[in-house]
Amino acid sequence: MITNQNKIISKKEKYCYNLFSQGLGLMFSRKKNLVMVFKKPIKIKLHNFFVFYPIDVLVLDENKRIIEIKKDFKPFTFWNSEKKGMYLVEFGLNQPTSNLKYKEGDLLEFKEK
Questions:
Q1: How many CA atoms lie within 13 A of 80 on its CB side?
Q2: Domain residue limits at 89
Q3: Is residue 109 part of a domain?
Q4: Which of 28, 63, 70, 109 could serve as a FRET partner for 103 with CA atoms 20 to 30 Å apart?
Q5: How far apart are CA 28 and CA 90, in angstroms?
Q6: Residue 28 has what pLDDT?
Protein backbone atom coordinates (compact mmCIF):
# COMPACT_ATOMS: atom_id res chain seq x y z
CA MET A 1 0.00 0.00 0.00
CA ILE A 2 1.28 3.47 -0.89
CA THR A 3 -0.05 6.53 0.92
CA ASN A 4 0.39 10.25 0.39
CA GLN A 5 -0.55 12.47 3.33
CA ASN A 6 -2.50 9.58 4.87
CA LYS A 7 -4.52 9.05 1.68
CA ILE A 8 -4.21 5.71 -0.09
CA ILE A 9 -2.96 6.13 -3.65
CA SER A 10 -2.23 2.45 -4.29
CA LYS A 11 -3.71 -0.54 -2.52
CA LYS A 12 -1.54 -3.08 -4.31
CA GLU A 13 1.69 -2.78 -6.24
CA LYS A 14 4.47 -5.00 -7.54
CA TYR A 15 8.01 -4.46 -6.23
CA CYS A 16 11.05 -4.85 -8.49
CA TYR A 17 14.49 -5.26 -6.92
CA ASN A 18 16.66 -6.83 -9.62
CA LEU A 19 17.74 -5.77 -13.10
CA PHE A 20 15.57 -8.36 -14.85
CA SER A 21 12.30 -7.36 -13.14
CA GLN A 22 13.15 -3.66 -13.48
CA GLY A 23 13.97 -4.10 -17.18
CA LEU A 24 10.69 -5.94 -17.77
CA GLY A 25 8.69 -3.42 -15.75
CA LEU A 26 5.13 -3.15 -17.04
CA MET A 27 5.82 -4.55 -20.50
CA PHE A 28 3.16 -6.99 -21.73
CA SER A 29 1.23 -6.70 -18.47
CA ARG A 30 -2.22 -5.58 -17.50
CA LYS A 31 -2.58 -2.22 -15.81
CA LYS A 32 -1.02 -2.22 -12.37
CA ASN A 33 1.23 -0.19 -10.12
CA LEU A 34 4.93 -0.86 -9.82
CA VAL A 35 7.71 0.22 -7.44
CA MET A 36 11.34 -0.15 -8.50
CA VAL A 37 13.88 -0.10 -5.68
CA PHE A 38 17.48 0.74 -6.58
CA LYS A 39 20.60 0.06 -4.50
CA LYS A 40 21.81 3.64 -4.89
CA PRO A 41 20.40 6.84 -6.43
CA ILE A 42 20.53 6.73 -10.24
CA LYS A 43 19.31 8.75 -13.20
CA ILE A 44 16.44 6.78 -14.66
CA LYS A 45 16.09 6.02 -18.37
CA LEU A 46 12.74 4.57 -19.39
CA HIS A 47 11.03 3.42 -22.52
CA ASN A 48 7.38 2.57 -22.71
CA PHE A 49 7.69 -0.05 -25.45
CA PHE A 50 5.16 -2.85 -25.16
CA VAL A 51 3.27 -1.05 -22.42
CA PHE A 52 -0.01 -0.43 -24.16
CA TYR A 53 -1.38 2.25 -21.83
CA PRO A 54 -0.10 5.61 -20.53
CA ILE A 55 1.34 5.76 -17.01
CA ASP A 56 2.41 8.33 -14.44
CA VAL A 57 6.01 8.01 -13.28
CA LEU A 58 7.26 9.30 -9.92
CA VAL A 59 10.96 9.51 -9.04
CA LEU A 60 11.58 9.39 -5.29
CA ASP A 61 14.68 10.14 -3.24
CA GLU A 62 16.02 7.92 -0.46
CA ASN A 63 13.42 9.38 1.94
CA LYS A 64 10.57 8.50 -0.48
CA ARG A 65 9.97 12.18 -1.28
CA ILE A 66 8.80 12.90 -4.83
CA ILE A 67 11.59 14.72 -6.65
CA GLU A 68 10.34 14.39 -10.24
CA ILE A 69 7.09 13.51 -12.01
CA LYS A 70 6.37 12.42 -15.58
CA LYS A 71 2.61 12.47 -16.11
CA ASP A 72 0.91 10.66 -18.97
CA PHE A 73 3.99 8.79 -20.22
CA LYS A 74 2.69 7.50 -23.53
CA PRO A 75 3.22 4.02 -25.01
CA PHE A 76 6.21 3.55 -27.33
CA THR A 77 8.10 6.65 -26.14
CA PHE A 78 11.28 7.39 -24.17
CA TRP A 79 11.92 9.46 -21.05
CA ASN A 80 15.00 10.27 -18.95
CA SER A 81 14.87 11.70 -15.44
CA GLU A 82 16.75 14.89 -14.71
CA LYS A 83 17.42 13.93 -11.08
CA LYS A 84 18.81 10.82 -9.44
CA GLY A 85 16.26 8.67 -7.64
CA MET A 86 16.34 5.75 -5.25
CA TYR A 87 12.77 4.62 -6.06
CA LEU A 88 10.62 4.74 -9.17
CA VAL A 89 6.83 4.42 -8.90
CA GLU A 90 4.71 3.73 -11.98
CA PHE A 91 0.93 4.20 -11.92
CA GLY A 92 -1.46 3.10 -14.68
CA LEU A 93 -3.47 6.20 -15.63
CA ASN A 94 -6.82 4.45 -15.93
CA GLN A 95 -6.69 2.95 -12.47
CA PRO A 96 -8.71 4.44 -9.63
CA THR A 97 -5.48 5.75 -8.12
CA SER A 98 -4.82 8.00 -11.10
CA ASN A 99 -7.45 10.51 -9.94
CA LEU A 100 -5.46 11.23 -6.79
CA LYS A 101 -3.15 14.20 -6.72
CA TYR A 102 0.52 14.18 -5.89
CA LYS A 103 3.16 16.79 -6.47
CA GLU A 104 6.88 17.26 -6.17
CA GLY A 105 7.88 17.47 -2.54
CA ASP A 106 5.17 15.09 -1.28
CA LEU A 107 6.41 12.34 1.01
CA LEU A 108 5.04 8.90 0.13
CA GLU A 109 4.82 6.06 2.62
CA PHE A 110 5.14 2.37 1.76
CA LYS A 111 6.83 -0.69 3.15
CA GLU A 112 9.19 -2.53 0.89
CA LYS A 113 8.48 -6.22 0.67
A1: 2
A2: 2-99
A3: no
A4: 28
A5: 15
A6: 86
